[in-house]
Every structure is written in structure tokens, then in C-alpha cells.
Amino acid sequence: MPPPIRTGSVEGMTAILLIHGHPFDHTLWDPQAEALRAAGHQVVAPDLRGYGSAPATGDVTLFAEFAADLAAHLDAAGVHRAVVGGVSMGGQIAMEFHRQYPDRVAGLVLADTSPIPEDEAGRAGRYQLADRLLAEGVAGWADEVLGKMITPYHVVEKPDVAAHVRRMMLATSPQGAAAALRGRAQRPDYRPTLSEVRVPTLVLVGAEDPYTPVADAELIHKLVPGSELVVVDRAGHLPGLEQPAAVNAALLRFLGAEW
User: Is the pTM of this model over 0.90?
Assistant: First the structure.
């Protein structure tokens, strides 16, 4: 028989692995990492292969490879079991990590992400974008999508946040981004494994996310027994930067910290 479903907060767990999305780096999680460390939690927030300070390798980076890299980061930090959180592509990598290393997952935080694999058009779009980034660099595409990564009004109202998002995108290696996009095109269907999750799970989503809308979060919430769903108002694809106080409160409550 499967182990009983645990619901509620992840009491007593102090280690949390935070996985950034594409095309960003570990600083995407800075507001949450600061709050979690201040509350006494151990935070492991590495750059994914090909992003930030982590060098790119090869033409394709499969999600299983990202998961193995993250397991090595936990080993280096002396952590066997952690709450695993990810946003967007990072959320999908968190699902892959759970698929590969379920015994190392004490809880899940899945933010602005989707468990559904790419269809034929989606795969083609990932490959086309990979080719474009290699040919043109990241800057032109970054300008096009800034107002989707965060809400258009936050581009104006929160210029520091917009500048942070743009800086991360511009610092991304085209080779690393392209390899990840090709791997993302090949990702599996995570719906079956989500239904087998038996650890506390927090599902977060920006109310105005154009990439992975609330319906995707509701699907994850429905699939994962006992999960909690938090919809963050006045936020798009990156609520952790757009509404850090609300996201921090949800995380700290989930982790059993005082608030």
C-alpha cells in the first residue's frame, strides 16, 4: 500500500531546494531565499546548467540531467531530503526530480508551471526558439516577452523588478538556453506521477499568468492529493518577484514557520 497522504505544513523540514525557470538564474528566488533563511530554513538555490554562472554543455539538456545536477547540489550541501520548489520550467524540473528521486523529496512547491507534455506544435516552437536564440542572441526575444514574464503594468510600476528580469534574461547563455529548450520539448507527461505524490504540496500561480494560467495550477492541485492552491493577485508568470510578500507568506506558512 502507498504511504499515507500528508497534508498541511511541512513541519520540521528546514532544507528547501529552489529551482529557477527559463531564461533566468538563481536570483529569481532572491526575495524568497532571504525570507526563508531569515526564518531558519536552509536554502539551496543553484544556477541550472547553462544559466547564470553554470556553464552550458552540449546541444540538449534533458530534464533528467537537470535533476541529476540538482541531486549533486543537495549532496554538496549535505542535504539528503528537501522540500523541492520550482517556477515555470523549474517547476517541471521539480516534477522530474520527484519522478527520479522520490525519497529525497519532503515536499513540493510548484509555481506557474504545467505537467502536460508538448504537443507537436509546442515541440516545434521550442526547437525554433532554440535556433533563434543561437542565431540572434537573447536580447530581441527578451524585449518581446518582458511584458509576459511580468504583467505589463508592473513593467512600468516596478521598474526595479523589470530591470532584474531583463538582466537575468540578457545574462543567459544562448547555448544553455537552446539546450534546455530542446530538452524541454522532450519532457514526459508528469500527470501520472503527480497523482502518486504523497508529500505536502503547495501550488502557486499568478492570477494573470499568460504562459501557465490558473487552469494549469488547478489541474496540478486536482492531481496531487491534499495539495494547497494559492492564486496570487496582481501577478503574472513570476509572482515571487511581482508580489514577494504574498509568496513569502504562503511559503512560510506552508513550511510551518511563524508569520
Answer: yes
